[in-house]
Amino acid sequence: MLDSDDQQPPAQPPASPAAESPARGQVDPSSDVSRDTRTRLLDAAERLFAERTFASTSLRQITAAADANIAAVHYHFGSKDELFRAVFHRRVGPVNDRRLQGLRALLTAAAPAEPSLEDVLRALVEPAAALRATPAGRSFACLIGRSLSADGPHWKTIEREFEGVKAEFMPVFVRLCPELSTADLVWRLHFGLASLCMVLSDTDRLRLATGGLCDPDDVGTVVEQIVSFTAAGLRAPATASPTGPRAGRPSNLDSDR
Amino acid sequence: MLDSDDQQPPAQPPASPAAESPARGQVDPSSDVSRDTRTRLLDAAERLFAERTFASTSLRQITAAADANIAAVHYHFGSKDELFRAVFHRRVGPVNDRRLQGLRALLTAAAPAEPSLEDVLRALVEPAAALRATPAGRSFACLIGRSLSADGPHWKTIEREFEGVKAEFMPVFVRLCPELSTADLVWRLHFGLASLCMVLSDTDRLRLATGGLCDPDDVGTVVEQIVSFTAAGLRAPATASPTGPRAGRPSNLDSDR
DNA sequence: ATGTGTTTCAAACGATCGTTTGATAGCGGG
DNA sequence: CCCGCTATCAAACGATCGTTTGAAACACAT
């Protein structure tokens, strides 16, 4: 397992049914001369997609930043959408691999007991938060954090990348939080990942708003803050309505008016 | 106070220094005949900005959905950017007013003691979460939740809308969490708002992924989940390093490899 | 040198974008 | 009746978008 670096087949653009007009065969990504232009395009696209947005970043801006020709994008990737997929796939694989490595190490080290909730959360959070330690990783962190809260045509692509992590972490959380209903557990994990996404996608706003007090690029602090906050939330007593019909809908501000 | 419905001055488009060529005077938004087209444009833009994105929604899509002419946008708002600002301003004002009302009611009801952490969080979360109860509000909820995690040219516009809420809620949280350092408090409130944003911007993904178990449109459940989770996180013991140099940077997965 | 396949380039394609224009209705008060 | 004002409309503006094309530049085995 731990697959992260497969190269897709030719992946010819869905248009043009007569596929092979001049030259379109994808090239082996390892030990290739043209890797220069390809990775330059990936780096530039990663940075610009993060700074602006996929929709508001033009291929001309990308190729200008990468010092390449416009047609190079379609030659190496086929289309703008597949360029996005390539940018995303290049970095999310290693992150998820580190997550699964960390989880498995914890499980075997603690067996037959269970690892601590904090350790499991750390294994999930740290590889992603560590992206913000490097400039390129920080660009990708903004991209991934932003893509998770905006579903466009790329949502299914993104979702698939995280299936393995979800499948392996969820049972562990279920065992570590036996007193929580499934709905409670899912809600709270959702909130924890929301916190992670918010930090990943931050672009100096939090640091500026706090006068440098809270720094999303301080990986160690970020990890401990998210882990301790989420662990405390997961340990909160279960809500009143397990899966009841509509039990307990307390709504405030009916005081006056 | 509680200002939410001020109309901006003429707000002439920054181009064309000789401003008044044919007809550009903004109209009084109350008791006006043309409110029809104006609000139809606002409604359509609100929905489409939420479904797609600001950048990937064209004015022609908006005017087609609003059954209006292309030029109507520039006649009533001046530009696409000011249309976004109008869409945002129309709904965020009442939400923040309800938040401040709720907070003040809590403060006077509990005086001279302090209200509970849960009640203050509820006053902050409920008015926003309640947006998801109506289709139009749900569109705006997606828009606001998404805009907060993506900073474009509209970030300063958005930030200004929330200044009042921030200024009035923050001192209360400081008093309610006296054992937390400022950095800890800001981090954890940031996480709580991240959870809120994630729920607001959800577009059926969570419900579909959980088989209907977690429904972002079930306002009562959402509020209680966010409030209890965030309150538990805020009550977690303070982290080791208050503002220390680099204390405690435990990094896992140094097991093998 | 020749041939083959890969990579890069300038230039153009049609489509769509935000914005502007000038004319055309509707409607009030003089 | 005509005038000033508001609102809407069809049509076009220049700019920029993603994509395609065909040829040049390059590498390298024979």
From TrEMBL, chains A, B:
Q: Where is the HTH tetR-type domain?
A: 35-95
- Give the DNA-binding residues: 58-77
The UniProt keyword set, sorted, is: DNA-binding
Q: Which intervals of the chain are annotated as region Disordered?
A: 1-36, 237-257
Q: Does the keyword Cytoplasm apply?
A: no
InterPro entries for the chain: Homeodomain-like_sf, HTH-type_TetR-like_transc_reg, HTH_TetR, PsrA_TetR_C, Tet_transcr_reg_TetR-rel_C_sf
Protein name per UniProt: Putative DNA-binding transcriptional regulator
